[in-house]
User: Fold these one by one.
Assistant:
Number 1:
Amino acid sequence: MELPDLDEVLNSTLLSLDSPTPLFPIKRSSDSYSMGQVDLFPEESISEIKFQFDLKTGMPTSFSEVSVSNLHQNSINSTSFQRKAFRRGTKFHRGSTQNQPFHITTGSTYNLSEQKNEEEKEKEKEKEKEKEKQSIEDQTKYIKSLLTGVGLLNEIPNFDSSKYKQEQEQEQEQEQEKKIISKEETKEGQEKKQEIESQSKEEEQSGYLDILKSFDLNEFENGEEKKEKEQEQEQEQEQEETNNEEHQKEKEQTNSKGNEEKNKIATTNLKKKPPQKAKKWVKIDNSSVKDFYHLIPNLALKFPFELDNFQKRAVLHLEKGHNVFVAAHTSAGKTVVGEYAIALALKNCTRCIYTSPLKALSNQKYVEFRKKFGNKNVGIITGDVSIQSDANILIVTTEILRSMIYKGADLIKEIEFIIFDEIHYLNDQDRGVVWEECLVLVPSHIKLIMLSATVENYLEVSEWIARVKDKTVYVVRTLKRPVPLEHHLYFNDEMFKVVDRDRHFLDKEYSKATQLKREKEQDSKNKYGGRGRGRGGGRGFNKRNFSKGKGYWNRLIKKLSSLNLLPVIIFSFSKKKCEQIPKYLGQDFTTKYQKNKIKTFFNKSLERIPLVDRDLPQINKTRMLLMRGIAVHHSGMLPIVKEITEMCFSKGYVKILFATETFAIGVNVPARSVVFNGYRKFDGFQMRDLTPGEYTQSSGRSGRRGLDSVGTVIIACDDDRLPWANELNHLILGKETSLSSKFKLTYLMTLNLIRIEELKVEDMIKRSFSEFYGQIQIPTKRKRLIELKFNYQNLKEIRCIYGQPDIEDFYYLNNQISDISEKIESVFLNSQFLLKLLSPGRVLSISYKGIHGIFGVVLKKNGKNQYLVLIIKPNQNGDLEEEVVSEKKNSSNKNNSNKKKNNKKKNNSKNIPDIEIEIITIAISQVSMISDLKINLPKQLKNVKKQNFKKLNTSNSKDLNLVVNQIYKYSINPKKKSAQIKKLNIDDLDFEDYYYDRDHYVKEFEKLKCHNCPKKDEHYYLYKERDQIISEVEELTFDISDESLKLKPNLEKMLLVLKELNYINEDNIIQLKGRVACEIISARGLMATELIFKNVFPKMSIEEILSALSCLIFEEKVRDMNELPNNLVVVKNKLLEIANEIDDIQAKYEVDNNEKGSVTDSLKFGMMEVVYEWAKGTQFIDLMEITDVLEGSIVRCIMRINELCKNVKNAARVIGNLELYHKMEEGMKLIKRDIVFAGSLYYD
């Protein structure tokens, strides 16, 4: 049987195994099953000219063009920007949805050059020809200015450059041909040939190399130098001649070896190429920095302190233009690396972007950078603020950076560095996807500085970024804390150090705490008559929040003050606890001087808000606490109050600060000690324990560098409870946080990628961190595919002696029987009657050595799921029943004497037909049928073993013959399967079907001619090998295709939703609604777009529109919500109607909503009346009587509504709706007032 062509067998496969591996950039394919269109390993290189100079005279002697890595390319010398820059203005830094992103020709995640129309390509070719036709005189002037400017030549003599060019080209071509002929057959010659070919290709690309060819540089050399060169050339020629002679001798020897070696070489043609060294995507730098100041004598930024070693290593890589990943503990000094990158950008006259996850951190960096680099050089862009947007140093939120890239902001062209601070925020459930988008889409000419806390899988994250950007990432890491930490338990008014500064768990100290707990419990029993106070009597943490009273907190603060551990940050993972605990404290921690300072600063800060808002309850409460040196900080506070608190704490006026964990991430202000009021938090989905990484992040705020020798961390325990030792060990000394991808598909991302057409959505998924582990295996899988095709072509043909081979059916049926047997086995294993069914004496049918329908009897259990069985073996053809039938035919033709003998055989049960018996061990999967027949086994069979079976077989045992005869009779005429199955009493609906199916396959299997074929085993294994190759090829083909992406099914469903809603057409081309949705980046884009196109807004007043937009923004749950006015009820019902329509379409295509629920569930109506009243002019203090939502949450919601109004206004401009455009402008004016939009203290 001839082997079919592998390409025909895999007609669904689009990968050609002979084709070379596709490289960057991506080629768009119209086929949805396109495989391997993306390669994360593009070759990025540029060329530069290197001169060789004479050491004596300083004159150039020769030159060569060398390929170098594109590491030093920045926004000054980059030639990858093909779109002309826009004029300075709003579009300069924010971009427009009508723009295309700047695309990079090398190392980028996408490229337009292969997707352009033919007309554009022809225009580019014409431009290149015009460049090549530039006058040689201009080029010689350029070379002259180049060389004279360097100081190598004072004058360049006049000459006819065209003649020199022709002569030099002819001479060089002749020399190259001679060298190629002489060295072509040697290894060295082949390597040099490759160098010459690469140089020639590079020379064609460079414009000014033609002029350098025309120079006869030998004219500027002295005679002695010429002689030395001639001698060197003669020596090289002699060496080449000797090498050629040796190579010819080797060639003659190899020719005499015969054709065997040629065949071997042919089979190993895949290994002809020399192995290339795998590129190191990540390099950990632990090198010495003793020569730091020698390598960088003039630092771009000088620091008033000596840099740590990890900081010096990072600075060295920044000077070299590398991408750097810095992993260090909190307060270790990671910001120094970012500051040096900013200084380097200012030195290079380029721009730098700093992005952080929280606005509070961005505001703090804005103040710090202004002080260090000057007010004119620093700007900030957030959703509601834009200050000096054309500054060289820009602080932006990650969402703004993503919008800049999608909208092709011209600012991106001038960026050299982007600093991603707190990059471990990739782990954030909601916003981690934004960080991944930015890291993937950032043009590769931009250098990345990634600052992270200590994470477990920092190497994997670095390798992912390196592969996506096609640039090596240099990892600089330190585990050393500038201020070591000591961890204590506070229990029963005493402190117990459980972990020292060297991170050793102190069992003795923990034992003292447990001993104190026992004594306290004993005293409680004596006092209360044997009834203990503690519930459960355990030592574990109270899983609820700590319930500590007024006396507890006063004693704790007094203890901290006596130990000189103030200022202290008390982390409580509940806003209510942060507000409640300060009420218990009665101490005063400020002096009169500090009180005056606080009062003056507080009153001056409030001058930016109206007089009415200065008497808000939260402001009065904060004022009273600050005067005593106490403060509160959480997200529910007014922005201006939070800023006052942060600044007072940084100046040392606040001694006790109650805060949530956002303070640890967003504000870089350490304290002397840190106290944890609990270790459980609500993460938006459930209550859970703190991870070791979260504990490390918050505890890292203890210990001030240069002020404290050690930082103190305290876990405040209840009076009757202690944490378990293993809980403490895991919390304090556990593994670092492991970053995981939170990448998810959104409609905004999908529409933006469809709009720009530079990067397919599938390609974005491939570059995400979630697909990283699968994508890095694609090159090896492609190699494996090539090997499989080579193995497939070398398979032997299956030539059947019968002419009509059944080997395919033989192999297929055998696999079917095996699969069904496994299903039956699983039913048996879960059956309660398994032991009864397979008890000793049960007659059954099994499969053994590839033969089905062998009958036997169970002797006993022989291990787990294994049984010892006596079987009657079939004949050589694997057919037992034929032997029985032939025996019947022979008996009918015999005489009477023979009949008498047969009767004796039946009566004595001794001389049955010649049948071999054997005792074997079987697994449950080998059982093909269990009969209802059960035989009484003799004693000798009950205790038999496989070792003494021969003795049993040779003995002429009547009992053995009786057992064999009963099995024999049953095998001739077995009962129907239905009768057997009913007696088994197995309650499984599919069990009977399994039995019938296997019986059917066994009957078909026994009809095949392959049973009588002497080459059955050989052909079976040949076909098995062929089938395994095909199945592996299909599996690998699927793995490297887009269909294997985890998010691909959901993407196809989302595209169907967008098509039905008319956001894109059938060809996946974006429509008007899709372009409008791209403008909505502040809320659910589909919902806002549907409101616009269904003409909902024209029917509403401006106040009602703003109230409706609040439902798309607000995310908190409101317990007690007042009844809405009638007009707002109408608005609410309209929103629910549109949301239900979208949900119905999504449910129709089964779209996964990324655990956020439906659009209807996402609408929150708790702020409708508040926003409505605010737009009508109601004072902020009166809003607090309408709702119980915290002041800070109200301000944040209204500010986001203002940002959403900007998006809707841009959308109205796109569709030309002037009425909606003016309504949005007027709405922004109505809400943008008073305390909600008070200027930040950081911006002064």
Note: The first helix runs from residue 6 to 9.
Number 2:
Amino acid sequence: MALGDLMASRFSQSSAAVVSNHLEECVSSHDDGDLSSQRRDSETASSSYGNASTTATTSMAYLPQTMVLCELRHEAFEACRPTGPSDSGLVSKWRPKDRMKTGYVALVLCLNISVDPPDVIKISPCARMECWIDPFSMAPQKALDVIGKNLSHQYERWQPRARYKVQPDPTVDEVKKLCNTCRRYAKSERVLFHYNGHGVPKPTANGEIWVFNKSYTQYIPLPISELDSWLKTPSIYVFDCSAAGMIVNAFVELHDWGASSTSGSTRDCILLAACEAHETLPQSAEFPADVFTSCLTTPIKMALRWFCTRSLLRETLDYSLIDRIPGRQTDRKTLLGELNWIFTAVTDTIAWNVLPHDLFQRLFRQDLLVASLFRNFLLAERIMRSANCSPISHPMLPPTHQHHMWDAWDMAAEMCLSQLPSLVEDPNAEFQPSPFFTEQLTAFEVWLDHGSEHKKPPEQLPIVLQVLLSQCHRFRALVLLGRFLDMGPWAVDLALSVGIFPYVLKLLQTTTTELRQILVFIWTKILALDKSCQVDLVKDGGHTYFIRFLDSMEAYPEQRAMAAFVLAVIVDGHRLALPLSGKAVGGFSEAQMIGLQEDAPAVYAPLLSGPQPEVRASAVFALGTLLDLGSDSCRDSVGDEECDDDERIRAQISIVKSLLSVVSDGSPLVRAEVAVALGRFAFGHNKYLKPIAAAYCKPQSNSLLNSLPSLAHIKGPSHVISSQIGPLLRVGNDGTSLIRDGRVSTSSPLATPGIMHGSPLSDDSSQHSDSGILNDGVSNGVVNHSMPKPLDSAIYSKCVLAMCTLAKDPSPRIASLGRRVLAIIGIEQVVAKPVRVSGSSIPPGEPATATPFAGLARSSSWFDMNGGHMPLTFRTPPVSPPRPSFLTGMRRVCSLDFGPHSMSSPDSGLADPLIGSGGSTGASERSFLPQSTIYNWSCGHFSKPLLTVAEDSEEILAVREERERFALEHIAKCQHSSVSKFNNQIASWDTKCEMGTKTILLQPFSPIVIAADKNERIRVWNYEDASPLNSFDNHDFPDKGISKLCLVNELDDSLLLAASLMLINFFNIYLLVRFREVSSIMLWDLDKEQLVDSFPTSSDCSVSALSASQVHGGQLAAGFVDGSVRLYDVRTPEMLVCTTLPHDHSVDRVVGIGFQPGLDPSKIVSACQAGDIQFLDIRSNRDPYLTIGAHRGSLTALAVHRHAPIIASGSAKQLIKVFSLGGEQLGTIRYYPTFMAQKIGSVSCLTFHPYEVLLAAGAVDACVSIYADDNSQAR
């Protein structure tokens, strides 16, 4: 797989497209014959009004095809604070605690050549080779010296930097001297003690090994306890003798190691023994006498000699050819090097898959020599078990001699050996590499296609690490490794634990261009979870690799973002990574200076209007870091160009103006960063902002509001921000208490932390409690930072207004940040308004919970509607005050206050503020500033899977396809329905709404109805059995009233859109917003979370009804309070298409308006309060082509079915009428006073089911009813 295919095919798609927003894409990517035929049947059956037939495209036009507000940034934005990369968490455990090195090796040989020990009876022929030398082929003393020298050379292959000392046939004193010398020179490094006891008796049950006296006439016992006291720790022992398990048992008893212990006591002591306590060494001539030592020190030679007698090649190979294998072990392009490479990969893989990861780290990654010995120990176990001898170790390893990876080794060895004769005969013959690594990478790729976190980890991971050493396999291995790391933090943990880190770190030194993109991706995954790697990167100069990558032009934007993220993690808190001159002080002021000198604000400012909310939030964060917090950095360099006051002031003004332009950005992620940035500004300019805030807050200073500049005049992509601050409680100029309504508070924030910020909505985005809010940062000279130069007072005025706007944000988290910012300049929320409950009676099961410290209002909430699954489930606990709830898991996806509001309005939700000017307590430090979360959010983003779709994507697609089938089938039924009568009440119940039902909504794929009352209490019911499912508040301040409920992402993971004090409509990815007091309509892009346009209504009257076409994106109709109707098309420059006065005989307001069912965009139904319903065809004639006198001066509601040819109107006179599009009255639902008859109140709202012929009606008496035609059965 080419890297371009991997990255481009996935990175070029948005996450929304992964779930396949467009049905045609779903069909092309999923060959579902049944689904296709079902669609064709539905499309053939369906037709548009005025058209005899319709095509597939026409039929699909009825279904919504987009998904919005489902990105990572919307996941629990209010509920939790994202965490950054770990310093000591999950993935940081991979780093070995203490790197070790074996510094000294003591080789003790007790051979006593030509004299057999008394307890050994040898067979004939018998094993004789010691270190591949026949001791009887030369004089005994010479043989002893040669064997010792060979053993030293064999060990040096594995650790060439250690010091080696051979002690042949020693005495006790010589062993003691050797051990003490080793420990003295090794210091804290590990010492290896190798003991060959082939010429002495077996160890004793008391834990003694044997050596000699000076005259070699006696065997002298050497207690293990003395040997251990000489070598101390850390140490490793190799015992090659019969009954070597006796020594291991003695060590276990000596140190009281438990039988189940894997790490031993505090003494770092490792043991390798040739056999168990009751076993003797193999004597077969097939093996060398020191078969255990040969396996540990010459594994390739030993493995091949043992394999030859069992291979199909045994007839053509002999031992002499094995001794002549060409090449070097360190050269992987030669036969010997390839065999050694494969052997290392196989033994590493076996160990990785059978050992606990902590034990694997200790034995195979901590010490180079120990790792080599344990790899070779696995071979010793395999070979010696074939001779009924079981090598043992401490820590004990599980049996590995029958692991299936040995089969892969045998096959690779056989393929290599098959070339051996020709390579020996012709030195110029070309060696053909083994397919072992290619096959193992293929196996790893198969696992990636089918594996997951919940399945067995891929056993090929250590092989992938080995493959990185080879240029021919490196690119493919890196791509597969990137795919694996993309599976989640657990995968990064596994890869780091197996030892991938030093390999990918060294690869940053390469200049190969094809590796750049995948290396950036891999390092993004690593650093998103483990920040500690920044030290290694800076130490090795790895950060320059990513800087060069950013300078290159071949990368995709997503990859450039990854490189920038890697650099951000590298410099996060690591001062050596910053190109600073001189000592950096708090806030990295030198780095700020460099940024200002490079004109960084001019680079960031254009990004504030970009289409991606993440980019806008990052730009806000970057601008905020350039704001001056005040420091001593310039005191010693007055007159220096770096501290030019005029330039700094101009830069600060430019930054602040840029920030003010996005105070009302559509994305909560952006507004949260604005609040954090303004907090930094408030901290640095506290002295100058505080008088402005005090002037605004004094009751007698209200007249000043009109003369001070408003944020409305700031040019930016967002709309008007509030320009007034209402009257406040009192202004305290000292530390005395203020009393109101019997409640006592103090201007000192530390005295009343529960009152100052006791809101249940208080944010957790700061690392410190809200009790640490700031007052006068310069009082009494307590704060020890210098204030920056003052800016223009108009800028300060606008900043105060912006801070107050953020404090009233509908997002609780942003509002909490805004309150913290206000606290920095001395405005503290002391008394919050309680929730107002109308009436004296309380509905059963719904206690009216007063929240005296409920904080600020929020005007919208989103919650999850998993239609089709009963009961309805929600994602996270409600944000509103706790009440009995039938469902759990509600979450807020997005909140935005679209319109202007006055802080002096009674429903502003802003608690009465207090200007605090008490003396500072010394807690006014930068650590109390609101903390940004965009960096941590980025860490969370990059730790998520980026290359593949989510695990539940198949399930999501299946649900969507099922709903599409249902929708297409029922659309066809609705279009061909012949409703004769429509007055069958199938459900009715009392919702217990004190203020009556304000608006109502039917869920498309479940028997669920959602209703809201005037107090903005939203209730969810199952209308089949009239059972309540959930109940929650839209917000805590019910003065506004919910004006509309609608569903977003109707066919997918639905979200409920609740609007207060505004008229809204959702179509495609756009949201229409129209305020009753503002003569303009705003168009918001929900995908970009950005205001697209705001255009005037071309009317002096307010809009009273708004509707968007479901099948023609961009078209909307608006009804006005003067009875006029206007049609708009947002795709045209002039917006307004036409204006008509269908209700010309009346000046009553338009109550309802809607596009007629079908694909004709010009047919509209309009109803006014006077009672007449007008049918308009704007193309042919602007006058109504049909008029229905439905009611007489009392029409209160209108509903137009999305697909069926019916409409319904409701009256305040307890009457509902249903009409066909031809004007025929299909049914009348009225109030009957008899005992058994249906009863309805004054109708307040009507809505049709989107895909069924069902009508829901809400009344002012809190009764909700569901009606169907006469063919439906009453429930």
Note: The first helix runs from residue 3 to 11.
Number 3:
Amino acid sequence: MSHVSVGIPFLKGQDPAQKYHKAPFAILVEAYTTTPGNYPVSFHFKSPVKGQTSERRRQRVNQLRIFSSETQSELLRIHSAMSALPEHSENVEEEIQKIRLALDAVFSSSQPTANTQREQRQLADRYLTSFQESTVAWMVCDRLLQDNSSTANPQEVMRQQQQHFFAAQTLSTKCRVDTFQLPASSLPSLRDSLFVHLSTYSSVGNAALTNRLAMAVSALAVQMSWTTVVTDLLSSTVSDPQRRTIVMQIFKILPEECASDRLVLADENVRYHMRDNLVSSSTDVLRFIQSWDGSAEKAYEVLYTWIRYVPIQSTVLTESPLLEASFNALLDQQTMELAADVIIEIYRMYPSHIPSNQGLVQKMIPLSSKLPFDQALTLGDEDVLRTYCRIITEMAESYMSLILSSQFLEASKLVEWVLRCSSIPETEISSITLHFWYSMVEELERVEPYEFRQDLIDRYTPYLLQLIDTCSTHLMKYPSNVSEMSEDEMDDIYRDRFYVSETVEDCCRLLGGNDVLGRLGKLLQNAFQLASNDLLNNWHGIESCMMCILSINKFIPSDEAEFLPFCFDIIPRLPADVQPLRCTASKLIGKYAFWLAAHPHLLQPLLPFLAQGLSIPFCASAAALSIKELCECSNQKIAMGEPVLQLYTEITSSPGRLDLKDDLEVLEGVCKAISRQIKETSVDGSNYVQRIVQPIGNRLAATVDNPNCKPKQDVIPELDRLTIIVQFLTVPTQPTSVTNPIMEVIQSIWHLLGCYFSEISSGQSVGRKNLPFSQTRVKVCGAAAYEPMLEPLMKQLVQSYERSRQSAYLYAASICVTEYGRIPKHSSNLFNMINAMATVSFSFLNNLDDLTRHPDVVEELFYMMGRMITHCPEPLVMSPLLQALFQCAAVGMQLDHRAANKGTLNFIENSINYGLTLKERNQHDCQQALESVLVNEGQAIVNNLTLSLMGDLPACNVDSGNGSIAGILWKLHSLSPAMMTQWMTVALATAPERPRIDFFGCLNNSGIPRNDFNLAVRAFMGGCKRERRLARR
């Protein structure tokens, strides 16, 4: 770069908050600059990444400010054609003027008055984005930063700040990814120039700008392998104490910048070498932090960064006075949060199970024990309590190996601290501890030998029982003002209660159901006794106990007779108007249906309770689910079939009284209870089938005759009900009948469905809702029983697909293939069906754009063909359709749609699987036909697979399950190693050299195991990604 002269200052830049930057396609930075008016200035520049969609560009443009009419005319003079960008000038002075004009346009406060102004603004933004990738940007940004002339004009001051920040931001990005644009010999001068700028702007207190400059210095330090950076910076503070602030700023950012994956390096070993040097320098850095006489917050920010990103030896931290200072800083509100972050990071990075950390662990525990936790509880300061709770919980999780060791006295103190944190009145704080209890139970269950594990459980049983009390009386309780809470607040409460339920269940896994239920049962009795005089207002304790009892239902035996009878005896006496309590009680009935089945005398008053709950919207779902669960436990003692069928008949007599999902829950229960009753009594089930189905048939008949019917409201619910009936109502065929009663139902409504589907328009998607019914009726009735309906079903599917082009019919057809594909007499009809559907599909899937508009059709088409090649391959393999499908699949592989992409890969892999099978069976005709297709289309398939691995096409499934990139390549390699090598030679021609050579080495191994091949594919993919990042710049 001839125009880059030695000594020019280059900008550096990234924020200490860079870990919060998440968007890979946009750089969003907000710099608040102090102006006479204290106006915040927002900067938003699009990242120079190719392939950004026009929609994303439009969204980003809408966030930019509008430029003035004067700037518009200047931009028009720069470039008259709005569709193309002007060339970047190699003349620095000329380019500076263009950049200033573009920045003025982007940050102008005037409002747009015409589309032309918006186009000009967009042009200015595009020009700035393009400039950030250019080589001349190095010098231009340097010159912009040099322009630091003083002015009294507030607008000019803001204009300068905008230009300086843009220059700093640009240079920080280029130091990460564009240093290859500079000769290596110029990097030291670039570093010196950055320090000049850093010193200049640090002296005036411009924090946002100095952050970017410090980030640039840090990125450049790694790029140029400046391994003595720490020593050199510390030495510079001896001769110039004013540089201490700059050095602290760099120390704050350097470790994170070294670890950042946004730092693009030609050799990743440079990163690891730099990290090793940071480790060796950590003692000096800690000393420097200790001697820092500036802001305490800055000291803890730097310390946090080094602990998080530099693997400092634990002995270095143990010996550092900063450790104790961090705990002392917790007593200062100004430094409490930062000091807590430091301490917590130490716990996370130095857990107790690593032997080398033992000295640090033994020092941390006494320091933690000095926390004034009792005083904080007395004062009730939520900020302090939250901080202490975080510290104590993180310590206990990190020191889990100590808790599960034989050092019980010391370890029990940790558990006791966490238990006290769980009792903090503010549930938002006390809930922080729940993950610790989960981890403790998980780890306890893994302890070996069993005798030692049981000894630990016995020792911690008192703590776990106290935790049960805390969950029931505190963590699980609804707030007293629950009726006044918003929907979002209630969502948070439901989430927290779910975690509390899991915690109670975890305790039950260790302590056993009887002990936990005994604890909760006594708490419930006490809560009911205390609230008995005013249940309407004091129900919260009863509800929380019931919810805890509900969560342990899997651990309670059916012969429990001490506490559950009391629990279910009080349910009918609970106030009917307290909906949260009624909802929990309804759920409790369902979860203990197995117990109630053994105690039927307690069930009778509970059924009206549930039936009434169906009419209360808040409780309806819980009541419906409980009714279904009771029906699943139906037996001769509690015959639920008839009473629930009557209840369901009453409910459906006026459609709409119950939400469909709750309606279906009750119907499923009816079907299961009736099925159990028919099985146990051996009665003819036809009568029950008619009673359940006849109302549905009547409603469908009325719908077909109604020209104004609405499928979503009138038809789909009925089809969903039929699906449930066919799936869960089991009625055996009677000896005197040759037809299954379910088949009789299907035949009786077949003409209604046929009439309906013949009338629907292509814009209605009712066919998809009919899918589960079609699939289930085949599977439940059995392929043999349903066989008489197969031909009319296939005909209906083809006709419906021709009219509607809806993917649902393809899926239904694939079910037919799965169920009947292996029966030879159906192979011809099945092929005719899928061939007709393929013809329809190809009529509107002609190119990539067509496939992109119909991803659901692509998905189901290829899954259907994949099932055909698996269950009934011969007709398809011997037909010209196979080659057309491979050609279409080669296009479908390019879709950026996970399901559609996976469907094409699934079809291809199934085809290759069949090819491998043919090699063993010696079926020469089919083998020759398949090989002919692969010879013609294999290169295109392999090209696309390789492009997916290289990042040029979507890679939706690399190596998991059937239909993966690695699976197809490995099986092609097994099918024909020579042909595969030929295809890969062509496909890898444009791949980066190093990953290409390594992958070819894998292909030369003809017997490579699948797992090793997957690793090779992943390695090739990772190598290409890294090379692509370098090439992008």
Note: The CA atoms of residues 552 and 809 lie 44 Å apart.
